[in-house]
């Protein structure tokens, strides 16, 4: 990674902002649920509108980047994309303060609440791909139409299946795609950024 990105002043400075008709309000980030702001009629078309047309990522990179959802969670108070919110009372069964999800098996989930994509949502591995059937079968795990498209669309599916079978391949491709995402369209100070 190259460090030293200059902060943008607002959404108008984000990659793709000049052509983001229909994306107003979220700086061109993808929509979790239809109707899609870009006018796409399928989740796969929406992902390619956002990640390929605006940002220049290919199918393989889109699938790799989506593996970021191995970690983290959604909140009804933030994206509103799920019914689970802040605190134990509104948490999914995987995000309560009593859940054991740390890799070292110690107590604690940080702030309780929200809903994750994977059961072990504090561990970065390939379970988003290898255990997606868990998510499809559990209404306390997320699986958006855009997640679904990754293992059904013919352009995405071979990469999804590869990452499900080969965690090292996922890690290698994820690292390359994340670096590209992180540096895309950014201005660096000093020029060229700081390489560590
Ligand atoms: C493929 C299209 C994508 C869609 C539809 C999508 C959608 C979402 C939504 C709805 C949330 C929940 C936000 C909230 O309620 O707080 C979320 C969280 C998250 N997304 Fe994505 N996202 C996408 C791609 C990505 C990419 C490319 C990355 C990074 C490379 C990423 C990383 C994350 C992470 C780490 C979280 C958890 C944040 C937290 O725990 O606070 N997502 N995403």
Automatic annotation (TrEMBL):
PROSITE patterns: PEROXIDASE_1, PEROXIDASE_4
SUPFAM superfamilies recorded: Heme-dependent peroxidases (SSF48113)
A GO MF term: peroxidase activity
Signal peptide residues on this chain, from the entry's feature table: none
Keyword Oxidoreductase among UniProt keywords: yes
Domain of life: Eukaryota
GO BP, one annotated term: cellular response to oxidative stress
A Pfam family this chain is assigned to: peroxidase
Residue ranges annotated for the Plant heme peroxidase family profile domain, each copy included: 53-196
Alphabetical keyword list: Oxidoreductase, Peroxidase
Family: Belongs to the peroxidase family.
Protein name: Putative L-ascorbate peroxidase 6, chloroplastic
